[in-house]
Design goal:
With 579 residues, the chain is mainly alpha-helical. It has 25 helices and three strands. 39% of the residues are buried.
Amino acid sequence: MKQWASLVFSAVCSTALVNVSIAAESMKPNIEFRQTSNQFLQALWHADKDFSLAAGRYDAAGQLPIPDAASREQQRKFIQQWLGKVEAYQPEQLSKLQATDWVLLKNYLQGQRWYLDSLRQYEWDPSQYNIAGPIDQILNTHYGPKEQRLRTISQRLRLVPDYYQAAKQNIKQATREHTALAIQQNQGALQVLQTVLKEAQDSQLSEGDKRQLQKRVQTASQAVQAWGEWLKQMDQQPGERRSFRLGKELYEQKFAQEIQSSLSAEQLYQQAQEAKDTLLTKMNTLADELWPKYMAGVEKPSDRSAKIGQLIAKMSEKHVTRDQFVPEVKRQIPQLMDWVISHNLLTMDRSKPLEVRETPLYQRGVAGAGIEAPGPFRPKDRTYYNVSPLDDFTPEQAESSLREYNHWILQILNIHEAIPGHYTQLVYANRSPSLIKTLFGNGAMIEGWAVYGERMMMESGYGGNTPEMWLMYSKWNLRTVCNTILDYRVHVLGMEENDAVEFLTKEAFQTESEAKGKWRRVQLTSVQLTSYYSGFAEIMALREERKKALGDKFNLKAFNETLLSYGSAPVRMIRKLMN
């Protein structure tokens, strides 16, 4: 009996040794790939100083990258070198977590090469040349004493003339739309430089450092002003200019790089048109229910769109005043936080600072509101919720904008941008154990989560579950769907301004102010407007899959937090990991 036991023990030990050997062999590619990933990040911090700064690393913040031909050639060599190292691994030999990092890294490197050699936006978009953003970030992020940050800014300002000289050399056939945006935002750069001077006067810098900083601000301001004048002169010159439209080939390529969907851009466009019809059917039912309450005595139109449009126009008269627009946004944030916590939708960190502020001038001109979050290396820094005030609007423009962001929709905007939308998702992303999934995040996941957050809040009863709230939510959700339709029709099918404005006002029930603002945005961006619906549709489909698979064991909070735990990876990758 003892002999038999000994033989069994010997066999078990031999099997265990073999299993350990196999396990060690299977772990080897994962260990090596993790080391390669870390080495890539270390190399990236040196190669791309602004990317490093955006991630929350300030050790090279004083170095202003010059966007010249030499730097682009260095970037090409960097991409080629690291793409070769990444492609040396076989994703099927990696764990699921590592394999998704492999895909993200490869997509990032291929994307950077595509932007350089195919899109070549550095030649036709002068708005991407602006020194203000990093300076504003350094000035307002308390990673060190004010004096240290001011000295860093002073060091960065030394090369501003070289920066704009390189920008002038790069520009070839700039689009008129991006040139106008660059001229507008250039004034914001001057404002940031004046803020630097003001902060220096109130600091403990030595007199010598103050004089040096003042001189560098003056030289930098002259370079910024000269850049603005150069843009104006260029804009007045006759000759053919590049169209802002990408065209089908470039659009599909950019869509594949940025959205990383299982669908093509054209397939998503067709799906969005079907979703639009479904939403309109629901809105028609709600309009019939609400008509007697808001439109008593008014004959109901037989045309569906006319009926919905008239009702929404009447309800939209309920809104805050112009001077209370930004204060009302601030007031609603803690209420949204309380709702998410009390309804057990997500675990929230009340200590994570969120500051509502007026959008800096150098960022205005594209979107009316947006989140500006810190990188993963500074997760405890404040997140800014930038809201553009209506100060410069005429009374008619202000009224149009306030009607668009009426009593109900302003709440949905805050859900989308802040809680539990972008602010919340990016807080979770900074906690992800995979820096790759956080740093090389997917725009469709980021925007899709914010749109999903709107639906989740509505399903939890937010807003009293009233037909008014559901109608306005549907109008907002229709905007998400129509973003995709508009973007494709403009950049691929050649839709013009009048048709675009009519489409948004008549079929999506947006105010004229909002529709014209969206027309401006679609000229200045491409593909990004499709990320909202694309990501939302994929998250909703994934949630339904998990519900079906888990049955009674499905837990909404657990689903939400698991989804967010993967950083900002594309939803199709998260699906594989969750399954």
